[in-house]
Amino acid sequence: MCGIVGYVGDANVQEVLVNGLKTLKYRGYDSAGIALFDEGKIKIYKATGKLENLSNKLLNLNSEIKKPSMGIGHIRWATHGVANEINAHPHTSTTGDIVLVHNGIIENFKELKAELEKQGCVFKSQTDTEVVAHLISEEYKKTKNLKDAVKNALPKLMGAYALCIMSANESDKIVVVRKNAPLIIGVGDGENIVASDIPAIVSTTSNIIYLNDEEVAVVKKDSVEIENLNGEKVPVKVVRISIETDAISKMGYKHYMLKEIHEQPNIVRNLLCGRIGDVNQPIKLDEVKISRDVLKNLSKIQIIACGTSLHAGQIGRYLIEDLAGVSCEVEAASEYIYRKNTTDANSLVIAISQSGETADTITAVKQAKEKGAYIIVITNRPDSNITRYADSILNVNAGIEVSVAATKSYTAQLLTLYLFAIYLAEVKDEGKDKLVNIKKELLSIPTKMEEILSSESDIEKKADALSKYKNFVYIGRGINLPTAMEGALKLKEISYINANAYPAGELKHGPIALLDENMPVVSVLIPGHISYDKTISNCEEAKARNAKLITVTSSNDENLKKLFDVIFKIPEVSDLLSPLLTVLPFQLIAYHISNFLGKDVDQPRNLAKSVTVE
Ligand code: AGP
Question: What is the largest CA-CA distance in the chain?
Fold first, then answer.
């Protein structure tokens, strides 16, 4: 959600900024803008819609831009005020002496705006961000120094921010600061770059500084200096990152989503490697720092997450309860915060977040932490904000996920939950033989995933034929219900087709009224559990209302062909491990329907990759 790039150096500044912003498009945006320090003044260019609109504008203006020495850029996902050029960043103070871009939310902007207007500041936009430019400008009048003006302004801001600021009076520096919003500094040779995320800096450097909250960095061409708000110098720690160039290229696939779907078997392989060696030996999960005694005596676990991560958590509940015999609650992070008396100092709370930047999940985790709970964070970004509150971090190691629709991170979260549930069961000495069998079966999962992916052309044909429907109902039971919910979410997100998921048993309690020949019912059917026959009965009830029946199943029962109109067959798998396989056809169905309909698969409308507002 929103992306920032800033650059000081000799390269073509506007090109570095636009190319950096391109790599951040996955975060979600609806307008873009840059500010260039050129010919002793700051020039600002903005455009609504796609980043290409800004690039084209810049191309046409090329003679107006001479040789900028630095610049800042931004892609905006509208929160305060519609997506137009006035509300697009960069924002300026009344006189234009301060220019900045911002990611996050200024919670007290209304109060600040009222005060600043009284002082004579003239506001142009409807954004919360603009108050920061005016505030810093007012401080600049007193300090005549950008860094000090920023430091004086910060204590007045409530909320979250990553800010990248230039002064028209200081031609050699960008000042950057963050609080609860991501911002990194890339250290180059005679050039420095700042950005919201790694992909924007990798073509400049692989040396990174992770800025802490409320540290102010002065970024010049040849130096980076950091101070805290008390004016104390902070030692600059540069770390070398391994550049994930594969992750940020499509590797020949039409879309990132498709590439990321195909990465899943290897992600699972890598996660299993070193954790399950000899299936007769306990699983290795050294990242769990909580003591074995505490784990043995746990009476309840709570899982909090949003969206796709929440679906992973819902499967995690079944695993923890089934394998480790510990009761487990799962709650949408945005709702958890309203629960009373549910978490205390004896609670174990597992927060799941691909990005580690989701505001709803972070707020919920903070609340749990304040109550003294032990926090495990499952994330794909171990350097993200949420990990600040973690006692243990389980890195799902899926690599950077660019497509807004989560696929590989979901599978990696799921696998991490399987590993954690087995680990907990082993600590508690629960059902050794069952665990050995599960570990054996887990090792076979990557090959079975590859088998499903190899039948993609068949899935594509069937999906294309389904793209004519405007509504779908997804159903599942038990451990298969969250997969049905995830399948429906994927379809909604990227094809904008209405798809609702229900527990199969709930169909007859209301949603069945929706069914007719225009409303296909999509089910998950895995034999070997009582839920199988019951779900078939629910499908028959739907058939009796003329609904077209579609299923993802591992069953070899030939009779299913009489009942179902479309069957997506997956390899044989136990009910408990089936979520690792059943989700693949759902991801591919959603992908191919969206692609067939010509939608923007990787950047669906209205969505952002990391949702940094509540
Ligand atoms: C997934 O396809 C979605 N884009 C969305 O539901 C996402 O899972 C949710 O916003 C949570 O994000 P997180 O895992 O980064 O916290």
Answer: 81
Ligand 1, residues at Cβ distance < 6 Å? 306-309, 353-355, 358, 361, 404-406, 493, 607, 610-611
Tokens describing residue 222: 């040849």
Ligand 1 centroid–CA 612 distance in Å is 11
Strand 170-179, strand 91-92: pairing: unpaired
Q: Give the list of residues 6+ apart from residue 591 with CB closer than 8 angstroms, or none.
A: 255, 257, 258, 261, 463, 490, 494, 601
Is 2 one of the annotated active-site residues of the chain?
yes
Alpha-helix residue ranges (DSSP H) falling in 330-373: 333-336, 359-370
- Closest atom of ligand 1 to 611 CA is 10
Per residue in 191-216, pLDDT (tens digit) is 999 999 888 999 999 999 999 889 99
For the segment 16-25, the average pLDDT, to the nearest whole number, is 94
Q: How many angstroms separate the alpha carbon of residue 293 from the centre of ligand 1?
A: 33
Nearest to 159 by CA among 131, 124, 200: 131
- pLDDT tens per residue, range 235-291: 999 999 876 666 677 889 999 999 999 999 999 999 999 899 899 999 999 999 999
Q: How far is the CA of 600 from the centre of ligand 1 (A)?
A: 17
Phi-psi region of 63 (alpha: psi -120 to 50; beta: other; left: phi over 0): alpha
Report which ligand 1 atom has the smallest distance to the Cα of 355. 15
Q: Please state, in angstroms and rounded to a whole number, the distance separating the CA atoms of residues 551 and 589.
A: 12
Tokens of 485: 């919910």
Summarised one tens digit per residue, pLDDT across range 545-558 is 999 999 999 999 99
Residue 164 catalytic? no
Six token digits for residue 330: 């799962």
Instruction: Give one DSSP letter per residue of 122-174, joined into a string.
Output: ---SS-STHHHHHHHHHHHHHH--HHHHHHHHGGG--EEEEEEEEETTEEEEE
Residue minimizing CA distance to atom 9 of ligand 1? 307
Contact 444, 504 (CB under 8 A): no
CA separation for the pair 568, 564 (Å, rounded): 10
Which residue's alpha carbon is nearest to atom 6 within ligand 1? 307
The Cα-based distances of 321 to 302, 363, 374, 417, 430 in angstroms read 11, 26, 19, 12, 11
Residue 416 pLDDT exceeds 90: yes
How far is ligand 1, taken at its centre, from the CA of residue 204, in Å?
A: 29
Q: What is the mean pLDDT of residues 10-14?
A: 96
Cis amide linkage into residue 482, ω under 30° from 0: no
Task: Give the contacts of 578 (CB within 8 A, at least 6 positions apart).
Answer: 479, 480, 483, 524, 526, 554, 570
Per-residue confidence band for 33, with pLDDT thresholds at 50, 70 and 90: very high
Distance of CA 195 to the CA centre of its chain: 17
- The one catalytic residue among 147, 408, 492, 609: 609
Query: Do the strands 192-195 and 170-179 form a parallel or antiparallel pair, or are they unpaired?
Result: unpaired
Which entry of 2, 306, 328, 539 is annotated as an active-site residue?
2
Ligand 1 centre and the CA of 432: distance in Å? 35
Question: What is the spatial distance between Cα 498 and Cα 112, in angstroms, rounded to a whole number?
Answer: 41
How far is 57 from 50, CA to CA, in rounded Å? Answer: 12
